[in-house]
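User: My instructor asked us to take a sequence, write out its structure as tokens, and then describe one feature of it. I'm not sure where to start. Here is the sequence I was given:
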Amino acid sequence: MTEDLEALVALGKRLDWEPDDLCDRVQIGWLEQPDGKSHATVRDFLGRALLKIRDKQGSRLPLAPNRAQREFSRRCGRRNIVLKARQVGVTTWVAARFFLHTITRPGTVSVQVTHDMASAEELFRIVRRFLENLPERLRQGALETSRANVRQIIFPHLDSKYRVETAADPNAGRGLTIRNLHCSEVARWPRDPAETLASLRAAVPPDGEIVLEAALESAWGTSGLARMANNYFGIKARPGGEAIELPTIEYVNGAPVRVTAKFAQYASIAECFADRDHMITSLPAYQEARAAAADPEAFARALARHWATDPGYAEKVLTVYRVHGLDRLDLRPTETPGS
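Assistant: Let's start with the prediction itself. The structure tokens for your sequence are:
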């Protein structure tokens, strides 16, 4: 068991390495590459070698990242805000990422927080599946678990634990130093989302990892407009441009009215974001917003006057801004990145 623990800890220090010859350099009896394919990092290799997921047909398969998951791995840092889209596996990938951290880095506490009990139970089943499909030698040795509470797995030989909680629990994460925190569907959290999130984030040290899911117009990346047209901001179609017609709600004299409107259709998410930036930085309608760029709240209110007909749109945007602590990403006029 000591040898396996040492191997796990050694791999935990190298999760971000990108060796071309990992199979030749790592000689561990329980670690076999399933199909001989190359893997970008040690973390990717371990995920495919050790972790199992269930596909839509109910079969258990090695964890192999899809395009969206690979892109998340490539871009992620210590603080991450993810536009969650349905059926791309972000939640599963984050769970796998944090599970590998937990079983290879001593003293790690990983916590995932969902908006309701059903989501917590489903997420914990994913994590339990990771555990149950580990090599028996590890499950009975280095990664043996101790008796734990509901939706919690404790690895006593590593002094590590993995927990899945709900934001409805006022004690979620209380008393812990959290190395890895994933907050799912924050906009749907009960009670006071901003207060709950602030409490959880305070438990994460500067070198810990946080993943938050955020969106507004795209219904957290699941709207028909986002899925069918790569339109994440409700941008209306312009003459001659690609368009898609969908039902929507517009506000007339402050009252909601259901209408069918033409929205811009984009070839990619990147194209949508580029168009949004072009509109805000060049159209005369947003001149007032540009003038208020140094004041995020004034900027949001000036932008909202022309961006949406919903009279409450500015406050909705600012709620996302406050709940996720996005002010930490703002640079003042005299600041430069890294200052």
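For the description part of your assignment, you could build on this observation: Residues 117-132 form the longest helix (16 residues). Try explaining in your own words what that tells you about the chain.
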